[in-house]
Design brief:
Layout: E1 6-11, E2 16-23, E3 26-32, H1 34-51, H2 59-75, E4 101-102, E5 105-110, E6 116-121, E7 129-134, H3 136-152
Parallel strand pairs: 3-4
Antiparallel strand pairs: 1-2, 2-3, 5-6, 6-7
Helix pairs in contact: 1-3, 2-3
Length: 175
C-alpha cells in the first residue's frame, strides 16, 4: 500500500488486534475487538460492492468480481515492507497516557472520486476518532491484512468477498 502505512498484530493477552498507523510524524494506535473486525469486513464489503456497481449483479457474480479485485490488490501489495517505527522524538498517538484507542464504532464512507474513508471512533467520555483515507485497492489490502491477523487469534471471521471453495469429491455443476 503505497500511500498508507499500517501494521496489525494479534495480541493474545488482550484478545484484540493492535493496529498501528503512521499519520505524518505521528503513530496512531487502535485496539480492534473481534466485533469491530467483523464490522470492518461487513462494512468494507458493502461499500466496495456499491462503489463497484455490483448491486445489480447476481450474488455469485458479485462475489467473484470482489474476489478478483481482492486478489489483484493483494498481489500488488508489499506486505513484507517493514513498518517504520516512530523515533524517540515522535509522539506515539494522540492518547499516549491511555494507550491505544479502543474502537467502539467504525464507519466506511465512499467519495465520488473513488477514495474511501475509514473512521474509527472511541466511546463514552472519549469520543476521539481517527480518519484514514484509502483507495479501493488499499482497502482490499487492509481487509486481507485484517483477515490474516484475525486468523492468528482463531476468531473464525468469514471474508464476505471470499468465493466458497469447492469441497473435494463434490460434484461440479455444468453451466
Amino acid at each position: 500500500m503505497a500511500g498508507v502505512q499500517i501494521a496489525m498484530s494479534y495480541e493474545a493477552v488482550e484478545d484484540r488486534i493492535l493496529m498501528r498507523h503512521r499519520a505524518g510524524a505521528k503513530q496512531v494506535r487502535l485496539w480492534l475487538t473481534r466485533r469491530m473486525a467483523e464490522q470492518w469486513l461487513q462494512a468494507s464489503a458493502r461499500v466496495l460492492e456499491h462503489v463497484q456497481g455490483g448491486e445489480a449483479q447476481p450474488p455469485a457474480q458479485r462475489r467473484a468480481v470482489a474476489q478478483f479485485n481482492r486478489e489483484s490488490a493483494v498481489q500488488g501489495t508489499d506486505f513484507q515492507k517493514p513498518y517504520r517505527e516512530p523515533g524517540p522524538e515522535e509522539p506515539l498517538s494522540p492518547w499516549p497516557a491511555d494507550g491505544p484507542l479502543l474502537v467502539a464504532k467504525l464507519t466506511v464512507t465512499a467519495h465520488k472520486d473513488g477514495r474511501l474513508d475509514l473512521i474509527f471512533a472511541g466511546a463514552g467520555d472519549k469520543p476521539d476518532q481517527v480518519k484514514i483515507g484509502v483507495s479501493q485497492r488499499e482497502l482490499h489490502g487492509l481487509t486481507h491484512m485484517l483477515t490474516m491477523t484475525a486468523e492468528k487469534g482463531r476468531w473464525g471471521l468469514a471474508d464476505p468477498n471470499a468465493v466458497p471453495a469447492r469441497q473435494p469429491g463434490a460434484p461440479r455443476r455444468a453451466n
